[in-house]
Every structure is written in structure tokens, then in C-alpha cells.
Amino acid sequence: QVQLVESGGGLVQPGGSLRLSCAASGSIFRSNVMGWYRQAPGKERELVAIMTSGGSTNYADSVKGRFTISRDNAKNMVYLQMNSLKPEDTAVYYCNYEHILTYWGQGTQVTVSS
User: Fold this and answer.
1) Average pLDDT of 46-67?
2) Residue 1 CB burial class (10 angstroms; 0-12, 13-18, ≥19)
3) pLDDT digit string (tens) for 85-103?
4) What is the rounded distance in angstroms from the CA atom of residue 75 to the CA atom of residue 67?
5) Who contacts 22 (Cβ-Cβ below 8 Å, separation ≥6)?
6) Are 68 and 88 in contact (CB under 8 A)?
7) CB-side exposure of 5: number of CA atoms within 13 Å?
8) Tens digits of per-residue pLDDT, 10-30?
9) Which pLDDT belongs to residue 61?
10) For residue 90, which of 40, 44, 16, 21 has the smallest C-alpha distance?
């Protein structure tokens, strides 16, 4: 079992920044993929950014150049730095861990509004 706890969501004005954090605990394998997905009201959950334990990344086209994913493998942490936020970034953001099985955090709300 793997437990994921997100933090750092909130309300921010358009053009602002937020940093999400996710702490993983439990049966963490050294080789894994961790990242972030989001789900807006009435929409399906979508990939935002993922990063392998080796450092390879994949970003949604909609966030390239604005969001940066990073990891601290020693602490089993993954982060998402979100800059130049737009109203369309409003969603519940979920932390994700994958190694054979997939685990999800409880989600953290990000609202971009003036």
C-alpha cells in the first residue's frame, strides 16, 4: 500500500503562482512514476505532469512552459510549481504514484479567479 498526501492548493488570481506538494509513504519502490493529474467540474481527470524516478518528465501541452514538476526521491516527495495560472487551470489536483499498481491522493483544490 502507498499513501499520498497533497498540500498547497488554494485560491489565486490569474497570473499568480502556487506550489503543490505530495508526500508518499508506505511500500515505495525505488523505480516508480509520480505526478499530478487534475479534474475540473464536468470533465474527465487529465494528466498534468509526471516524472519517473530517473528524472524523465511528461507534461500536458496546456501547461508546458508554465508548470514544473520536481521530485525528492530521498524524501518520497513530488512537487508541482505552477506559474502564470489561468482560470482554466481551476480543478482538483491529484497526486499519483505508479509501480505496477496505481495510487491516488485525496486531491487538493486549485481555484484561479479574480
Assistant:
1) 97
2) exposed
3) 999 999 999 999 999 999 9
4) 21
5) 4, 5, 6, 7, 34, 36, 77, 78, 79, 95, 105
6) no
7) 3
8) 999 999 999 999 999 998 888
9) 98
10) 40
